[in-house]
Write a structure and sequence with these properties.
Blueprint lengths: L9 H4 L15 H4 L26 E4 L11 E7 L21 E9 L9 E12 L2 E9 L6 E3 L4 E8 L5 E8 L2 H8 E2 L2 E2 L6 H4 L2 E9 L2 E9 H7 L24 H12 L24 H4 L28 H6 L18 H12 L9
Antiparallel strand pairs: 1-2, 2-3, 3-4, 4-5, 5-6, 7-8, 9-10, 11-12
Length: 368
């Protein structure tokens, strides 16, 4: 397994005068499996405290090697798997999670993103719940007091302002998706599926709290994330040959080609694959795809128009300035930008990564 340490406990370090104790110390499976979503996030009892620093049993934090860009938001991820159940390992796809599983993802911004553990404001928490008939998505919007999140099936627009990592003041309207919009990114051959938690993206080390008093973590220990799941009964097996994708923005964690493809795998491949909503483009940006032509190398667009920027190829080796992929990633025009949903800002680091990759690319698509 590869080693990629980050400190999980952004949450554990976030404290608030508004934090309150929430009884009792177990997830309410009846609420999880109810036909209708709970009106308040606290009704599920995923955590013992409002600020989500103390998860209840079998609510497990996790992180990804490379994550989906969402306007630079902080993301706090947890998975709940009911007692007596396990996820089934898959080498290529997202794990097969049992009925009753909940993927819990909270989006937040620090007042100054250069200090991501200070003055953190939760914006929304999205729940993906595995039912007998498949996955369902429930968005919850946090109140101004930061004491509760309320179910919002129609979504919401939340004004957000912060200082970004470059010291620039940013103001935007955070768009909480409605339930139908969630399907736009999570559709695979007509079925709603999760995006991130695959073996290759979970294959990393993570700090897990070992001793704490209240919300204060006194000791943390780095553990192999997948083996932690296995030893805690959340996963059925961990083979010796687990695949791995690098951290896209760590120059020491893979070649430029590997890191660029890891970025595309997470940010684009959920649509651009043979069974995804972007299959008509002819692109297949999955990590498992080895044909550069299907990444877009030397590939002409299916339909020319304003979105192409007047360029001829999705990727023109050696020429990022003439590549449609870069043109669309660098745009915020709704008729041009890619991805179409989930961002209002340009992922400048992602664009720079693509430019470096394509600039170093040979005619056959190789760059390593």
């Amino acid at each position: 397994m590869r080693f990629g340490l980050t400190i999980l406990a952004c949450l554990a370090l976030v404290t608030s005068a508004a934090a309150q104790r929430m009884p009792p110390p177990n997830v309410d499976d009846r609420v999880v499996m109810a036909e209708t979503p709970a009106p308040l996030l606290s009704h599920y009892r995923f955590f013992r405290d409002v600020r989500m620093t103390q998860p209840n049993p079998r609510v497990t934090p996790y992180e990804l090697n490379t994550a989906l860009y969402s306007d630079g938001a902080l993301k706090f991820r947890h998975v709940y798997i009911p007692s007596g159940s396990q996820a089934r390992y898959s080498a290529d796809d997202v794990f097969d999670f049992p009925v009753g599983t909940v993927l819990i993802k909270t989006f937040a911004f620090a007042a100054d993103m250069r200090a991501p553990t200070e003055n953190v404001r939760f914006i929304e928490t999205r729940l993906l719940i595995r039912r007998e008939e498949g996955w369902v998505a429930y968005p919850y919007v946090w109140n101004e007091e930061q004491t509760e999140a309320r179910y919002s099936p129609i979504g919401a627009d939340v004004p957000v302002s912060f200082t970004d990592e470059d010291g620039e003041a940013i103001a935007l309207d955070w768009a909480v998706p409605n339930r139908n919009q969630c399907k736009a990114c999570h559709d695979r051959a007509g079925e709603f599926v999760p995006i991130g938690p695959s073996a290759r993206n979970l294959n990393r080390y993570l700090y897990y709290p070992r001793r704490s008093i209240g919300s204060m973590v006194l000791e943390s220990e780095a553990e192999d994330q997948l083996n932690y799941w296995l030893s805690n009964g959340l996963l059925d097996q961990v083979p010796d040959d687990v695949p791995y994708v690098p951290h896209a923005f760590d120059p020491e964690d893979g070649t430029i080609g590997q890191r660029a493809r890891a970025y595309l795998d997470v940010n684009c491949a959920h649509c651009h694959n043979p069974e995804g909503p972007g299959h008509t483009s002819g692109l297949d940006l999955r990590w498992s795809q080895s044909d550069p032509a299907l990444w877009g190398v030397g590939k002409r667009p299916v339909a020319a128009g304003r979105a192409s920027g007047g360029f001829d190829f999705a990727i023109e080796p050696g020429h990022p300035e003439r590549s449609i992929l870069v043109h669309r990633m660098a745009s915020t025009d709704p008729g041009v930008m890619m991805p179409e949903l989930g961002r209002t800002l340009v992922d400048e680091r992602g664009v720079a990564l693509m430019r470096e990759w394509i600039g170093a690319m040979r005619e056959d698509g190789s760059s390593d």
